[in-house]
């Protein structure tokens, strides 16, 4: 057997060392959970083992993969549309005083309405299918994106606009393309993160309350059956979905802001 | 007489003051009236008290700001928009932080529709001229202030302008590096023979670099003095400050400037 190269061994050791505290904490948490569950009613706090078993069952029966697939599709589609709409209106509102005065109030109003309150109206207009659900996600996510785009475009990025103009960049669109949007990326990224959070919550709530499908419906179904272990087993992928989308946003951010390191 | 490369005729500029009421229309007259003729290949430095509109004047020449009245002419033609015959070097360097050094220098070339490969070649040539070809793929934040300004200089020169406009380019750079940059600038100027308008608040620097020094009065500014600097070139081959001709020129400018500053201060105290 060949000896692993020295560098690889050192790297492996390093990453293991970094992971150790996380794994240690997680293990402690799980042990504490299991102990607590052994004392409490399984309805209130199911044991770790029963949650794991429920999870396997959901995967085997195909319920979880289907639900997860629906939720992922819904979120990705909804967020893409929300990004496009938010970017478009954000540019308009950010660069035009008139647009700002006329349109902003509607976005502000939308922002403070809980997504769940919008759902009945959307369902009446668009039905229970994918269309209605995507629109719910769009409505949940569009405002933070619009706000971050418009507010960052309203500020002048230092003298960079002047620099661009001095070298012959002419016109609002060209300046947007070469300087303004690129300089606004950090703020827009934070708006996107917020939008992801709101979209995941909005989608989960809509699915749960109205049994629309996806993970939310799973949670509701098993909740109404008082199968708490299954409820936990369904919530976990939901959180991972949120984390996964955040990581995706992080990747996009690193693409644009990688030069900072 | 040969036509001037750059002409400023009757330039005035005012800015609106912060308004208490929308009916307030008071304006701050920054430039009261400036006329200047700059010959081809001439190096003119501009100094004056704070607020006299030195940077504003430069931006008007670059057509980044409109003048209230008057005209800017290059080769006899009136200019109203930024153009390839003028290029600016900025005090805070003005580099795009997300672009590499090379892409920063290529930027004006690509804006003027030069094909990518040619732009890269030209950009590398000018990066070599300022000695930064090894940093072509670094980002601005990885470079020191002096190096960033050299990138700014390479970027301006790469467009091969007739007129180089420099807005206190060494203001944000430490004193030692500044002296090296001054020498480097003079060498590049000697080599490329551009017409230069160089704004600074440093009197020594103004005399060191210039063929002529333009001293502006306090706002509303006018041409207070226009002093020729006859000191021999190249000026990096000897200690310019020790040259007998240096002190009288500097003294003449400083006396006028100092007088203006004190009178201005007294005037403000009285009002």
Overview of the structural elements:
The complex is a heterodimer of chains A (261) and B (271). With 261 residues, chain A is an all-alpha fold. Chain A folds into two domains: 1-39; 47-260, Orthogonal Bundle (MetI-like fold). Helix content of chain A is 85%, strand content 0%. Chain A has ten helices and no strands. Chain A has helices at 6-39, 48-61, 63-95, 97-112, 115-126, 130-154, 160-166, 172-210, 214-224, 228-257. The radius of gyration of chain A is 23 Å and the shape is flat. The two termini of chain A are 39 Å apart. With 271 residues, chain B is an alpha/beta fold. Chain B contains seven helices and ten strands. Chain B has a ten-stranded mixed sheet, sandwiched between helices. In chain B, helix 2 (101-111) runs parallel beside helix 4, helix 3 crosses helix 4 (145-158) and helix 6 (203-209) packs antiparallel against helix 7 (246-270).
For the sheet with most strands of chain B, the description reads: 10 strands, mixed
The major beta sheet of chain A can be summarized as:
none
Number of strands of chain A: 0
Percent of residues in β-strands of chain B: 15-25%
The beta-strand count of chain B equals 10
The oligomeric status of these chains comes to heterodimer
- According to CATH, the fold-level topology of the largest domain in chain A is MetI-like fold
Run of helices and strands of chain B: EEEHEEEHHHEHEHEEH
Query: β content of chain A, as a range?
Result: under 5%
Mind telling me the CATH superfamily name of the largest domain in chain A?
A: MetI-like
Strand order of the largest sheet of chain B: 5-4-1-2-10-9-3-8-7-6
Distance separating the two termini of chain B: 46 Å
- Which spans of chain B of ≥5 residues are poorly predicted at pLDDT below 50? none
| Number of alpha- plus pi-helical segments of chain A | 10
Arithmetic mean of pLDDT of chain B: 92
CATH class of the largest domain in chain A: Mainly Alpha
Global outline of chain B: globular
How many helices of chain B in DSSP terms? 7
Helix content of chain A: over 70%
Number of domains of chain A: 2
């Amino acid at each position: 057997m060949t000896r692993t190269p020295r560098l690889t061994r050192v790297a492996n050791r390093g990453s293991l060392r970094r992971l150790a505290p996380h794994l240690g904490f997680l293990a402690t948490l799980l042990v504490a959970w299991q102990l607590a569950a052994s004392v409490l009613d399984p309805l209130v706090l199911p044991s770790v083992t029963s949650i794991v078993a429920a999870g396997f069952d959901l995967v085997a029966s195909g319920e979880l993969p289907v639900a997860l697939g629906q939720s992922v599709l819904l979120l990705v589609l909804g967020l893409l549309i929300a990004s496009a709409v938010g970017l478009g209106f954000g540019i308009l509102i950010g660069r035009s005083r008139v647009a700002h005065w006329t349109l902003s109030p509607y976005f502000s109003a939308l922002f403070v309405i809980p997504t769940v309150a919008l759902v009945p109206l959307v369902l009446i207009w668009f039905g229970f299918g994918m269309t209605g659900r995507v629109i719910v996600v769009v409505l949940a996510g569009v405002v933070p994106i619009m706000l971050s785009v418009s507010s960052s475009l309203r500020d002048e990025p230092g003298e960079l606009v002047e620099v661009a103009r001095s070298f012959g960049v002419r016109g609002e669109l060209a300046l947007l393309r070469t300087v303004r949007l690129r300089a606004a990326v950090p703020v827009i990224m934070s708006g996107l993160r917020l939008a992801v959070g709101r979209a995941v919550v909005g989608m989960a709530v809509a699915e749960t309350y109205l049994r629309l499908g996806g993970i939310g419906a799973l949670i509701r179904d098993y909740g109404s059956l008082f199968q708490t272990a299954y409820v936990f087993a369904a919530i976990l992928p939901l959180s991972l979905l949120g984390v996964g989308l955040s990581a995706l946003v992080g990747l996009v951010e690193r693409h644009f802001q990688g030069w900072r390191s | 007489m040969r036509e001037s490369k750059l002409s400023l005729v009757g330039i005035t500029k005012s800015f609106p003051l912060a308004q208490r009421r929308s009916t307030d229309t008071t304006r701050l007259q920054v430039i009261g009236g400036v006329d200047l003729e700059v010959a081809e290949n001439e190096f003119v430095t501009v100094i004056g008290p704070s607020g006299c509109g030195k940077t504003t004047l430069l931006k008007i020449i670059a057509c980044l700001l409109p003048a209230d009245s008057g005209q800017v002419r290059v080769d006899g033609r009136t200019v109203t928009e930024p153009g390839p015959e003028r290029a600016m070097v900025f005090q805070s360097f003005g580099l795009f932080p997300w672009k590499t050094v090379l892409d920063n220098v290529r930027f004006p070339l690509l804006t003027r529709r030069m094909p990518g490969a040619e732009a890269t070649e030209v950009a590398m040539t000018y990066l070599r001229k300022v000695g930064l070809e090894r940093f072509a793929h670094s980002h601005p934040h990885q470079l020191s202030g002096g190096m960033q300004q050299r990138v700014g200089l390479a970027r301006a020169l790469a467009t091969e302008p007739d007129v180089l406009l420099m807005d206190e380019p060494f203001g944000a750079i430490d004193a030692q590096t500044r002296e090296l940059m001054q020498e480097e600038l003079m060498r590049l100027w000697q080599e490329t023979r551009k017409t230069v308008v160089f704004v600074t608040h440093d009197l020594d620097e103004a005399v060191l670099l210039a063929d002529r020094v333009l001293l502006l009065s306090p706002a509303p500014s006018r041409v207070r003095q226009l002093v020729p600097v006859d000191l021999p070139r190249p000026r990096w081959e000897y200690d310019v400050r020790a040259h007998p001709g240096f002190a009288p020129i500097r003294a003449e400018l400083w006396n006028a400037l100092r007088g203006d500053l004190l009178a201005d201060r007294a005037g403000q105290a009285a009002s």
